[in-house]
Design a protein that fits this description.
five-stranded mixed sheet, 32% strand, 181 residues, alpha+beta
């Protein structure tokens, strides 16, 4: 399957917007990252309250994982250039992997620590889009969940007007966005 980069970017922005709205609905303050910060793997900054400690977050939208049951963990962002993927370069404190309406709160260092293991035993795939190819491993969502410090449920687009829901929090949300975990 060949992806269109512009479509992927738009889908990712939609997910970031929904994620930001969910955080705000839980009383958190959210500030978008600057363009320079985005290049270093930070999509937003989140704090418990106005003026509170900011935690950096990178959001990864993985819509295919909803039906495949596996998360795409990018190890090479450009096959042609041989550049490392987000799993190896993320500089944010938190990595929020969004699979449909489920958010897995991960520590990037924990993801990096498992890349070699996953690469050895999980299926490696190359994805094509109109700006080049990326490579990664398909990791079962159960392993992503086990690694997550928190798992939350975003409201679906239809549910958004009706309110916000939590699936499960392994740690209080205040700990997750304030760096206490």
């Amino acid at each position: 399957m060949r992806y269109k980069y512009a479509d992927q970017l738009a889908a990712g922005r939609d997910t970031e917007d929904r994620f930001s709205a969910w955080l705000r609905g839980h009383g958190r303050h959210v500030r978008a990252a600057t363009l320079e910060e985005q290049y270093s793997g930070i999509d937003m900054w989140v704090s418990e309250h106005d003026g509170g400690r900011l935690a950096s977050v990178e959001v990864k939208d993985d819509r295919v994982s909803v039906t495949s049951g596996r998360a795409f963990i990018e190890t090479v962002s450009s096959v042609a250039k041989g550049s490392d993927g987000w799993a190896l370069t993320c500089s944010a404190e938190w990595l929020a992997v969004v699979s449909g309406d489920v958010v897995y709160w991960l520590r990037p260092g924990e993801v990096r620590a498992r890349v070699a293991e996953w690469s050895a035993r999980c299926r490696e795939v190359t994805t094509q889009n109109d700006s080049g190819n990326t490579r990664g491993v398909l990791v079962p969502l159960g392993e992503i969940e086990a690694l997550a410090e928190a798992v939350c449920l975003l409201p679906s687009t239809r549910e958004h007007a009706a309110g916000l829901h939590d699936l499960r929090l392994l740690a209080p949300l205040s700990d997750v966005v304030s760096g206490g975990v």
